[in-house]
Amino acid sequence: MSDKLLKVDIQKELKEFNLEMDFELKQGCLGILGPSGCGKSMTLKSIAGIVDPDSGFISLNTGEETVYYDSNKKTNLKPQKRNVGYLFQNYALFPNMTVEENVAVGLGENQDKKIVSEMIERFHLQGLEKRYPRQLSGGQQQRVALARILAYGPDVILLDEPFSAMDTVLKERLRIELIKLLDYYNGLSILVTHDRDEAFQFCDEIIVMDQGKIIAKGPTHDVFENPGKVQVALLTGCKNISKIEVIDDYHLKALEWGVTFEVFEKITSNISHIGIRAHDFTPAEKEDINVLDTTDAAILEMPFEWQVTLSNGLWWKLDKLIYDHELNLPEYIKVDPKNIILLEE
Q: pTM of this prediction?
C-alpha cells in the first residue's frame, strides 16, 4: 500500500469557466469523470507542471513533502523535477527512436539496460525492441509509453483518456492489462475519462466534474449508487430522470412519465428529481408496487441486450444471449422503491 499523499488545491481562469479543483489522494487510483471540455485534462497538466494554475497549491508527500506549486511562495517546479509520469492520449512516443530507445529515454542519463529489459519483458514487448512507433499497433504503442513511464519509478501516474482513440476490442484488452499494471504499481494514479465504465472499473475513488467544478467525490461505488445530483446521475449512466411533484413523505409523481411511485427514503425539501437505472426494472404482477404497463412499448434488439422503451418514455434494459431473438415481454414491470434514486437539481 502506498504511503504517499498528493494534495491539489488550484484555481485557473479558462475561456468558458473558472477551474477550481481541491482534493487529496492517499492511495490507489482516483478517477476524474466528466464531459469533454470540463477541465479534467487541465487538472492533470497542472499536476504535471505542463500548465501553470493562476493560484493554489500542489504537493506530494512521500515521507517528506515536495511542493510542486505554491502561488503564495512563488514555487513552481519544472516538469522534469516532479516525479510524475504522464500518459498522453497519443502516447507521445519519439518517432525516430526504437521501442527500447523510447523506454530508455525515461531514465535520462542513468540508463540501465537491465531496467529496460525488465520493462520490455513486463509489457510483453519482446521481439519489438528494434521497431519504430509507426511499425506498432495502437496497443503496442500504449505498452511502450507505459513501459517508458514505469522505467523511472514515478510517484504518480497521470492517465489522460488512455483508451479514447481505440476500437472496442483493443480497448477491452488494454483495460485488463492496465488494471493489472495498477494493481502492481505502488504509487498513486489518476485516470481522466468521460467513460463511466472506465471510471467504475479502474478507480477506488472518483471525482465527478462539470464546468470546472467538483460536483461529487467519494468512493466510486458510493457515488454510482448514490449520485445525489441530477448531473452526477447522468454522468454515471442513469438513463431515466424525471422532475417530480411530491405527494407525501414517501410518494411522488414523476412528471415526465405521468407515474406515481413509492420511494424508500423520506423525500426532503431539496429533492426535485428522481432517477431510475434502466436495468433496475423486473417483471411484475398488476397489483405490485410501482408497476408500469408495457403496452405499446418499442423494442430494440442489441447483440447482448434488449432495449425496451415504454410508451411514456421510460427505458428498460435487460440482458440477452446472442442467439435469442424473441423477447417474451411481460405485461407489467416494476421498480423496487429502494432502486429509485432521489436527486437534487
A: 0.87
